[in-house]
Design a protein that fits this description.
CATH topology of the largest domain: Nucleotidyltransferase, domain 5
Number of helices: 11
Shape: globular
Number of domains: 3
Order of helices and strands: EEEHEHEHHEEHEHHEHEEEHHEEEH
Strand content: 15-25%
CATH architecture of the largest domain: 2-Layer Sandwich
Number of strands: 15
Helix content: 25-40%
Structural class: alpha/beta
Oligomer: single chain
Radius of gyration: 20 Å
Strand order of the largest sheet: 13-12-11-10-14-15
Amino acid sequence: MRILAIDVGTGTQDIMIYDTEKELENSIKLVLPSPHLYISQQIREIENDIYLQGEIMGGGKIKNTLLQHIEKGYKVVMEPTCAKTIRDNLEQVKSFGIEIADENEDYKDYTKITLGDINITKLSEFLLGYDLEFDFDEIAIAVQDHGYNENMGDRDFRFEKIREKISEPISPLEFGFKEDLPEYYTRMQAVRRIIKSEGIEDVPLLMDTKFASIAGMCYDEIAKNLKSFIVIDIGNGHTTAASIEDGKIQGVFEHHTSSLTGESLERYMKRLASGEITNEEVYNDHGHGAHVLNPISEIEKVIASGPKRELIEKTNLDWHHACPGGDVMMTGTIGLIKTIQG
């Protein structure tokens, strides 16, 4: 079986091509700039009015780059779907000075840019240039998706859905979606539409980046030999931790990385392990929340991943930087692959 796994993060998109007939360490790997970074660079280099089309994607720097473009005196027009990259509410998008495309208008003199978290055609051309086959039995993609509910803020809605998913202890692998992908995960739905538009009929596996990372960390060589431990993804924007006992998630908390110190992170993880952490204490500290089903017997080790993972070194806990398959950059892709394999 050949699997294409793509983990789209804030800084990089990490790609692995895994063949079950070969060792994991012999997989083809790519670490490329995250799509929002090179699209933002495209925008900065344009001296013209811009027309954006395509899909919802991770906004990252795109919003600020577009606002800077408007400040230069240029117009920015976005089609309704891709405009949700900036805000789900199109009235809010317009409040920034961005116009929503009118199908009766002619934008032929505008420079066109297509938004999207993935570009399968571009990737296939790159791989074929190295005589690598672009033929896969399964495709798995991770993006961070807060979900959308018009009656609830992103922070609240995201954690509500995490809480619903962990109504009982479950394996991190159960966070993958195929045919059962909910409509409210608009960014994942956009990725699915891109895949279909590129002529790929098979339904890809979609997963949130944080839970792809959590799944991957559980397959680290040290983690595989532990019974009771914590995995933590310390990202550029968000930090997500899960307490694990007997291979299942017993509790989780999510916070904003910029709000954490070594001291507060250590306190939260100890309280996660003991089952004492509350949703209120994390939420009132401007985090997303916490949800615990059961305490774990002990923290044998903290397995850490993510671009800001050095924060774990400021705690007094026994930590280890995750490197499943011998590569710290492939934690999410390995989580995707293991989820596909079940």
